[in-house]
């Protein structure tokens, strides 16, 4: 039996699917998977449609080429191929697809930005903007903003694609029908058998911890909190080490990028080495500053993104694994803040000890891999984390990764633009 | 003393205005807490039911009231004694509200500022209403009323803009004063107790003490200027006297004459009003017939083009003559070519397949068809000539008022012409109508020709017209037939010019007209036979040799190119007119969205020139559904209840207030939803059909009111 609530969300998903199909002539796997969360899917599709097909300063072929560049940064062949199709549909120049050396200088200039935003957004500063906006065939500021949103969107979408192990579309290479299906059609049935098979110890433990955290009132000073934050960062730095980037197979999508070895470096190490300081969310928050600036330069985009962030942050079903009526806000907040912590963004009203208590080590490793090196994710990574959780909840966490990371990238970028403007 | 009660960061704290030990805090966790400094913990907690509280402020006028503004755009008014529920809540902004401030003196006013770049002044005395609204250039971070100045409020913004602006809420467009010493975003400011000193802090790590007289007055640097261009090419321009005096306003271009309009009103600023008053002058530059800017050709052709209601060839010919009249040979030629291209093929085919039986019978048939249109044509004809000149325009008014006298004067006019000098009457007709369309000319010729019973004259003249191509002949035949039908009004109409010019003698009105017109009818019918005979010969002669060599040339693409050419030239009028005239002949060659654009722009330009009738005609003639339904939208006429005089908005035949059906049929006592017939004598009525039936058998009103109704 389906409750009326699931039924209404079922119909909402169906309506959204129909709309997507009409707009894109296909129902891509990303959309299908996000169909678990129609509440989020709706603003997601609207945003994606707006930045790719709506009013905006950039021409359409540019938009798709930028999307290709961004996805290629994380070697996400799936997105690259989809975007190549779109690019050709917009009558983009075929020669551009041969690689970065064939494209106009203007697009090539964006590569530097792409690289930094994808891996080390804290390096992004106003000199980058200056470089783009000065000189021959320069970028206008609203074009830069548009490009940055596209880049961030596709970087983070790559995270999602890898995080959920999305298969190529049927019409793409290697995307034949008779493959092992990761996206079951009948979600309800799978969810049911999922939750019965595994024991719920993990979830119960987590709930207990959440309860204690929400009850206790720890007295801590600013200094202590800062220590916690830094400790968290240092810990996360130790999570993944000794992974050789070169061991990844060479991919043909790399022709859309340069400097393939440039990758994420732990923010903690960076801080020791240079004068780059922690980004305090109080100084430059999305709700106050980011939104105001963005809406000024690229109208409506701010509103769309704001809605998307808000829903991604607030969405809950009061459910965890097989347990119902759970207040998941502490857990969600821990994930969100942990992701932004990886990028050196600090919420100074947050006690980072909570992260340590709520997120077990392999979940943290998983989050870090996905946000920083999504291309290294394997299927076992997906299977091994959050064992007691449903598929839909894993997708939920992936959505949060997408959004938290995107917000982090945009915050750095927008701060740089604000500094450039003033 | 440290309070640690909130789960997340505290956005704002506020001390009570009277009690020094009461402190209120609003936090990111969505709660507000009230602290008593004499105690160690929060004395009460208020749950706002939103994600975060951005600002809290105690009311200076009411001991227990405070305002709280939220991230979701809501403003809540709380009573400290009640912790479970707010007193009042309303949505003030789209997006977060960052700040609020009670007016220090005016009890009703609360000012709020938010991310949507507005400062709003709310009147809270009744239902919250926006009293004033100020648009700023960036998100508003802080606002504060200026002490002792009722209408002044200061604001600083969150990003981009570093200045602290002081606004007069009655002049919301330009700040009254601005302090822009800061090099980064200002984070906060406070008024000294007197209104002339303001203290501000900023992210650039400085603190400034400003004195009001140092402030920049942006209004002094703003030069009020307004400029607009009318659709006729006139330019009007208003500028502050300061600029006008400094540099004498000059305008390049010979075709413009400038006039300075007198200043209509001047607002005298009161002494207390610190706002700068600006005196401006208005100049109007009239466009004196610059050929390139003048749009008379557009208006004229919009009025005179005929788009439907006649045969294709006639329409083309008429429109061509309109165009050439307006010195647009290019367009005229296009119309003629269109006529050539499209008229040739179908007519020839038809003619050929019949194997030229007797044109007499064809013209009979055509006559039958044409007769239906004859009435329209006669109207069209008179309409087209009506627009010829201002002179005729005036005439129309007169003749419109006394329709009967028009016929009379026409008849006698012709009578005079025939009796006096038949030859010159034709000549005068031609000369007076020289500016008229060719088609009309032909008709006039027919008319005069018939009047003089000289068929040859017509054909002699007609041939020059028909040098264009033989295919006109067939279409000319209906012209004759239709002329036959409607030449009486036409004829009556044309010779009116000379008469009007020499102010008709009074006896003309009394002159017996009917015999003459009967005579004419007689003559016409007789002459028609002759004409038809002539036509027969004529068509036969020209038809037979040409038919086999009919070119199978696909010219639709050329037409598409031509339409696009006109569109590129900015002449959508031509595009739309051609599309309408071609109609079915040219369906599906131009894609619908382009057509729609053309229609839309043409209609827009037409309404610019207030040519509503033409626009409406274009709309109703259009075959594109989105266009043709344009004039059916957004016009709703509500029925009025006869009892309470209220509009019946919900259902058209039932009054919600009186609970009655005001439109009851007096025969069947049901509500009438369609046509309602009512007697003007007793005001009773009902279904048209029922009333009709009733009054067939009864002379009285069906209600029994005793009135003798009459149905006509």
TrEMBL record, chain A:
Gene3D superfamilies: AhpD-like (1.20.1290.10)
Any Pfam family hit: PA26
Keyword Ribosomal protein annotated: no
Organism: Limulus polyphemus
Protein name, UniProt field: Sestrin homolog isoform X1
Record's keyword terms, sorted: Cytoplasm
PANTHER family xrefs: P53 REGULATED PA26 NUCLEAR PROTEIN SESTRIN, SESTRIN HOMOLOG
Record family assignment: Belongs to the sestrin family.
Keyword Cell division: no
Name of encoding gene: LOC106468938
Main subcellular localisation: cytoplasm
Localization of this protein: Cytoplasm
Automatic annotation (TrEMBL), chain B:
Entry-linked InterPro entries: WD40/YVTN_repeat-like_dom_sf (IPR015943), WD40_repeat_CS (IPR019775), WD40_repeat_dom_sf (IPR036322), WD40_rpt (IPR001680), WDR24 (IPR037590)
Record-linked PROSITE patterns: WD_REPEATS_1, WD_REPEATS_2, WD_REPEATS_REGION
KW Disulfide bond (keyword) present: no
Biased segments, Polar residues type: 376-393, 442-451
SMART domains: WD40
Each WD repeat, start to end: 3-45, 90-132
Record flagged with keyword Transferase: no
Family: Belongs to the WD repeat WDR24 family.
UniProt name for this protein: GATOR2 complex protein WDR24
Originating organism: Limulus polyphemus
């Amino acid at each position: 039996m389906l409750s009326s609530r699931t039924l209404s969300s079922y119909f909402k998903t169906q309506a959204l699917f129909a709309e997507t199909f009409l707009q894109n002539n296909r129902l891509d796997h990303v959309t299908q998977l996000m169909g678990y969360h129609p509440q989020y899917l709706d603003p997601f599709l609207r945003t994606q449609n707006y930045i790719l097909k709506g009013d905006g300063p950039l021409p359409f072929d540019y938009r798709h080429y930028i999307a290709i560049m961004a996805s290629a940064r994380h070697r996400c062949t799936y997105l690259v191929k989809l975007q190549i199709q779109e690019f050709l549909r917009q009558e983009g120049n075929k020669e551009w697809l041969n690689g970065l050396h064939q494209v106009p200088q203007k697009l090539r200039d964006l590569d530097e930005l792409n690289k930094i935003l994808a891996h080390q957004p804290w390096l992004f500063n106003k000199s980058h903007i200056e470089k783009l906006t000065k000189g021959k065939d320069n970028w206008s500021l609203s074009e830069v903003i548009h490009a940055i949103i596209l880049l961030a969107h596709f970087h983070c979408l790559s995270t999602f694609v890898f995080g959920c192990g999305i298969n190529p579309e049927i019409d793409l290479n290697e995307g034949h029908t008779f493959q092992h299906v990761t996206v079951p059609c009948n979600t309800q049935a799978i969810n049911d058998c999922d939750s019965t098979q595994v024991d719920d110890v993990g979830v119960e433990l987590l709930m207990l911890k959440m309860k204690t955290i929400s009850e206790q009132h720890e007295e801590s000073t600013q200094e202590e909190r800062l220590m916690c934050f830094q400790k968290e960062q240092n810990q996360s730095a130790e999570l993944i080490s000794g992974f050789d980037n070169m061991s990844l197979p060479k991919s043909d999508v790399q022709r859309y990028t340069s400097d393939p070895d440039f990758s994420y470096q732990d923010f903690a190490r960076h801080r020791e080495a240079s004068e780059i300081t922690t980004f305090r969310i109080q100084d430059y928050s999305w709700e106050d500053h980011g939104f105001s600036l963005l809406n000024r330069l690229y109208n409506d985009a701010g509103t769309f993104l704001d809605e998307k962030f808000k829903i991604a942050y607030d969405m809950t079903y009061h459910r965890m694994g097989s347990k119902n009526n759970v207040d998941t806000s502490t857990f969600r907040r821990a994930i969100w803040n942990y992701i932004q912590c990886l990028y050196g963004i600090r919420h100074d009203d947050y006690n980072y000890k909570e992260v340590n208590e709520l997120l077990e080590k392999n979940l943290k490793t998983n989050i870090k891999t996905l946000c920083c090196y999504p291309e290294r994710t394997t299927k076992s990574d997906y299977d091994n984390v959050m064992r007691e959780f449903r598929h839909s909840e894993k997708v939920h966490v992936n959505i949060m990764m997408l959004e938290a990371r995107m917000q982090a990238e945009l915050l750095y970028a927008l701060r740089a633009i604000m500094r450039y403007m003033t | 003393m440290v309070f640690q009660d909130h789960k997340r960061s505290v956005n704002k704290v506020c001390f009570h205005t009277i009690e020094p030990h009461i402190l209120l805090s609003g936090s990111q966790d969505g709660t507000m807490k009230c602290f008593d400094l004499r105690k160690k913990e929060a004395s009460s907690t208020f749950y706002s039911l939103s994600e975060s509280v951005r600002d809290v402020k105690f009311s200076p006028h009411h001991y227990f009231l405070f305002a709280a503004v939220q991230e979701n755009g809501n403003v809540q008014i709380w009573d400290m004694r009640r912790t479970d529920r707010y007193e009042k809540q309303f949505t003030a902004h789209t997006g977060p509200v960052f700040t609020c401030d009670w007016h220090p003196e005016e009890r009703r006013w609360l000012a709020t500022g938010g991310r949507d770049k507005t400062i709003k002044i709310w009147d809270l005395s009744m239902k919250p209403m926006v009293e004033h609204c100020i648009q700023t250039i960036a998100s508003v971070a802080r606002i504060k009323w200026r002490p002792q100045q009722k209408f002044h409020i200061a604001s600083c913004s969150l990003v981009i803009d570093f200045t602290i602006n002081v606004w007069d809420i009655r002049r919301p467009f330009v700040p009254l004063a601005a302090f822009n010493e800061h090099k980064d975003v200002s984070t906060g400011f406070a008024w000294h107790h007197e209104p002339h000193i303001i203290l501000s802090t900023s992210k650039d790590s400085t603190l400034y003490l400003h004195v009001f007289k140092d402030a920049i007055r942006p209004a002094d640097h703003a030069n009020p200027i307004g400029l607009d261009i009318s659709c006729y090419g006139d330019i009007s321009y208003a500028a502050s006297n300061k600029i006008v005096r400094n540099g004498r306003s000059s305008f390049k271009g010979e075709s413009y004459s400038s006039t300075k309009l007198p200043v209509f009103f001047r607002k005298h600023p009161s002494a207390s009003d610190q706002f700068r008053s600006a005196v401006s002058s208005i100049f109007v530059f009239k466009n004196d017939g610059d050929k390139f800017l003048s749009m008379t050709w557009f208006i004229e052709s919009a009025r005179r083009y005929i788009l439907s209601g006649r045969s294709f060839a006639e329409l083309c010919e008429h429109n061509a003559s309109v165009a050439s009249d307006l010195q647009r040979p290019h367009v005229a030629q296009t119309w003629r070519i269109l006529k050539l291209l499209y008229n040739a093929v179908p007519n020839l085919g038809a003619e050929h397949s019949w194997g030229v039986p007797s044109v007499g019978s064809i013209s009979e048939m055509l006559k039958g068809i044409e007769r239906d249109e004859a009435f329209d044509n006669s109207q069209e004809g008179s309409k087209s000539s009506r627009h010829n000149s201002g002179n005729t325009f005036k005439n129309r008014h007169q003749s419109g008022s006394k329709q009967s006298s028009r016929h009379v004067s026409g008849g006698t006019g012709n009578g005079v012409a025939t009796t006096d000098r038949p030859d010159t009457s034709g000549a005068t007709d031609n000369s007076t109508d020289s500016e008229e369309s060719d088609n009309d000319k032909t008709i006039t010729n027919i008319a005069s020709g018939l009047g003089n019973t000289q068929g040859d004259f017509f054909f002699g003249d007609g041939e020059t017209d028909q040098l264009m191509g033989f295919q006109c002949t067939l279409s000319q035949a209906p012209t004759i037939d239709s002329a036959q039908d409607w030449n009486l009004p036409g004829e009556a109409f044309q010779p009116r010019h000379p008469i009007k010019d020499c102010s008709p003698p009074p006896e003309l009105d009394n002159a017996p007209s009917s015999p003459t017109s009967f005579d004419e009818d007689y003559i016409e019918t007789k002459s028609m036979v002759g004409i038809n005979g002539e036509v027969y010969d004529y068509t036969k002669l020209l038809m037979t040799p040409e038919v086999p060599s009919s070119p199978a040339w696909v010219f639709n693409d050329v037409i598409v190119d031509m339409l696009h050419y006109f569109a590129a030239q900015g002449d959508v009028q031509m595009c739309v007119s051609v599309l309408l005239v071609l109609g079915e002949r040219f369906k599906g060659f131009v894609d619908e969205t382009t057509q729609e654009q053309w229609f839309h722009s043409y209609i827009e330009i037409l309404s610019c020139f207030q040519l509503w009738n033409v626009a409406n005609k274009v709309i109703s003639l259009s075959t594109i559904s989105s266009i043709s339904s344009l004039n059916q939208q957004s016009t709703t006429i509500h029925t009025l209840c006869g009892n309470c005089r209220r509009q019946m908005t919900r259902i058209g035949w039932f009054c919600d207030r009186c609970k009655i059906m005001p439109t009851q049929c007096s025969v069947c006592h049901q509500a009438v939803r369609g046509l309602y017939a009512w007697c003007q004598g007793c005001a009773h009525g009902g279904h048209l059909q029922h009333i009709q039936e009733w009054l067939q058998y009864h002379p009285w009103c069906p209600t029994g009111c005793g009135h003798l109704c009459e149905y006509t």
